[in-house]
Write a structure and sequence with these properties.
By secondary structure, the protein is mostly helical. It is built from five helices and no strands. Helix 2 packs antiparallel against helix 5. The protein is flat.
Length: about 130
């Protein structure tokens, strides 16, 4: 079985070649990457501040936001809102109790420096 068009047209070039090249759309030169500024170094975060945020505002996810754990912080904040809204139909009490236990667990983990709570999201060790 033959193809309806030849693999190489009459000019003896492959089909995928552009007969009208666009010279202004080439790859950037290597010197552009050297001109970029270096990534800013952030100061190390305090273990005491993180522990206090987890203890007092842990159910709101403030400690997680401080360490750069945004997904976990938003999850805790959303669960807190659902717990407050559901408090009047009795199920919110369990959600809020779970958040309190979760926050106290993270508080202890920050104090001990265990399981990823010894560093922030950028990998910088807490001081």
């Amino acid at each position: 079985m033959s193809t309806p068009w030849p693999a190489y047209p009459e000019h003896n070039r492959p089909i995928h070649t552009n007969p009208h090249p666009q010279p202004h759309y080439s790859q950037p030169a290597a010197h552009y990457s050297a001109a970029l500024p270096p990534q800013a170094q952030t100061a190390p975060k305090s273990r005491r501040v993180a522990a206090l945020l987890f203890f007092f505002f842990g159910i709101l996810g403030v400690g997680n936001f401080y360490l750069g754990q945004k997904k976990r912080g938003f999850t805790k904040l959303g669960l807190f809102v659902l717990g407050v809204l559901g408090y009047f139909i009795f199920i919110g009490i369990f959600v809020l109790a779970g958040l309190i236990i979760w926050s106290l667990t993270e508080f202890v983990m920050v104090l001990k420096g265990s399981d990823g709570y010894d560093r922030d999201q950028d990998g910088i060790r807490l001081v």
